[in-house]
Design the sequence.
């Protein structure tokens, strides 16, 4: 039987993990120098979904509230960025507006909706996503309504523009991951996990559960809105059906489950594996890629029901136990 890990050993592993994370971020930042446009687009999409999944991780993985319609904040971020740019704001200012508006909406609607629990809350978030589509269509005017909203074109040539968007998406993934890691080490993170493990018990301990959940959802929405804002600038034309597409949330949920809920690097791992797997399967099975892709996802879920990160840790612990016993 292996001995329990010492605090010094845990610190060394943490330093090693962050060293690998920093090295990986540097490699990815330099990757556009060697990548063609196709793989540049694939990786940009991976970073986008990793950011959205980290946002989902805050409210689902850390807090335990399954927001099936959390992609609504992707749409709010996209439209906030698009409207701000059509009104003359530069992209950096519009991106700040996307984050702020998404977080504000979550803070406002969170007070009544987050009093719901379980499947009632999940259904309410889906309804919010559907309502947002109709709201954008009915408002019209600055949102473009059902006809969509074209964004001002950038002055940069296509090559430098796409590399810049790549780097901004990469920064979103890195910062959102660091933010989740920071939350986990703070009293706020302990409060979120206490709510996840037992909300009534958390309330008895003196935690303001409603305010804590609203804050978590606002953070989740801000992260998701950031990804939506960058996506809108990347696409240059948005419409309600694509900006508030429920498939974005479904895909992020799959990535979160595959990587590991409530972990720091799990959402990033899930995004890389799922998106690359989807790309490779699509390239190898043009006629039946969805069937093959679905079968592979089912197999992964059966082999690693708690996520690939947890499964990997279990395998390492078993290996250490066997070799320690020997």
Sequence:
């Amino acid at each position: 039987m292996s001995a329990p890990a010492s605090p010094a050993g845990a610190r060394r592993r943490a330093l090693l993990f962050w060293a690998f994370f920093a090295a990986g971020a540097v490699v990815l930042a330099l990757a556009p120098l060697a990548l063609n446009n196709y793989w540049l687009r694939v990786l940009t999409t991976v970073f986008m979904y990793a950011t959205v999944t980290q946002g989902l991780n805050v409210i689902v993985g850390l807090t335990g509230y399954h927001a099936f319609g959390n992609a609504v904040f992707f749409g709010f971020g996209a439209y906030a960025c698009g409207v701000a740019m059509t009104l003359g704001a530069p992209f950096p200012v519009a991106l700040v507006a996307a984050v702020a508006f998404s977080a504000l909406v979550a803070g406002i609607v969170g007070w009544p909706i987050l009093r719901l629990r379980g499947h009632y809350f999940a259904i309410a978030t889906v309804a919010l996503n559907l309502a947002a589509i109709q709201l954008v269509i009915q408002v019209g005017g600055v949102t473009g309504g059902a006809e969509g909203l074209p964004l001002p074109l950038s002055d940069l040539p296509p090559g430098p523009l796409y590399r810049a968007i790549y780097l901004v998406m990469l920064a979103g993934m890195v910062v959102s991951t660091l933010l989740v890691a920071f939350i986990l080490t703070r009293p706020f993170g302990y409060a979120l996990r206490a709510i996840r493990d037992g909300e009534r018990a958390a309330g008895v301990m003196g935690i303001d559960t409603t305010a804590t959940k609203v804050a978590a959802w606002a953070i989740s929405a801000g992260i998701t809105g950031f990804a939506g804002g960058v996506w809108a600038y990347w696409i240059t034309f948005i419409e309600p059906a694509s900006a508030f597409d429920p498939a974005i949330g479904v895909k992020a949920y799959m990535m979160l489950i595959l990587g590991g809920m409530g972990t720091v690097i799990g959402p990033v791992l899930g995004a890389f594996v799922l998106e690359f797997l989807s790309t490779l399967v699509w390239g190898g099975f043009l006629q039946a890629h969805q069937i093959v892709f679905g079968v592979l996802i089912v197999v992964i879920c059966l082999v690693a029901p708690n996520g690939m990160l947890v499964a990997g840790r279990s395998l390492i612990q078993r290996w250490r136990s066997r070799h320690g016993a020997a």
Observations:
- Residues 243 and 276 are 23 Å apart (CA to CA).
- The chain has a mean pLDDT of 88.
